[in-house]
Amino acid sequence: MGFPRATEIAQLLVKKRLHPGDRAVDATVGNGHDTLFLASCVGPAGRVDGFDIQEAAIAGTRRRISADQPVVLHLRGHEEMASVVPAGVKAVMFNLGYYPSGDKSIITQPDTTLRALEAALDLLVPEGIVTVVIYPGHPGGAEEADRIKAWLAGLPPERYRTVHYGIQGRPGGSPPPYLLAIERER
Ligand SMILES: C[S@@+](CC[C@H](N)C(=O)[O-])C[C@H]1O[C@@H](n2cnc3c(N)ncnc32)[C@H](O)[C@@H]1O
Fold it and tell me: What is the spatial distance between Cα 177 and Cα 169, in angstroms, rounded to a whole number?
């Protein structure tokens, strides 16, 4: 059976908070799993904005969305989310790394990821949540993970609560993905 994966825990945390009519962001659309999940949580009265820099990810996800799902997809970097998403968002999901169905050398980058995380926090409503699934095992992934952890440690604790979930890696094995989540205080 095994423990739930970081991506499953991320969805669990988000599902607890999202209600019909809420607004949410998928910061890394990829194959669109989180986009569709968010759309199912917020319902037709809500709104989901999704971002990806790869046309194949946006086009593939667009084909999977039905007409009544309130999803707006943006072929642009998540670091620009503040220019198209108004404040008042309940949840922002990041799933870092590479597009599983595409070129694995195109990965999220620490500088833009951190800018996007800052933007995401600024958009959140009180008690809103940002989830970040991190993959330290691929080239470039460990550096991104370290930069995010350092940034997280500097967040003001009176404004944000944070949590870290991860499966313990095996000695000598590739480090497994893990989840960081940030909740804005009331
Ligand atoms: C691990 S995949 C996301 C998986 C996705 N959540 C799913 O359900 O399949 C990471 C995605 O981030 C995208 N990406 C990389 N840099 C980005 C950026 N600056 N802004 C938005 N997306 C980016 C990649 O193109 C890739 O599709």
Answer: 9
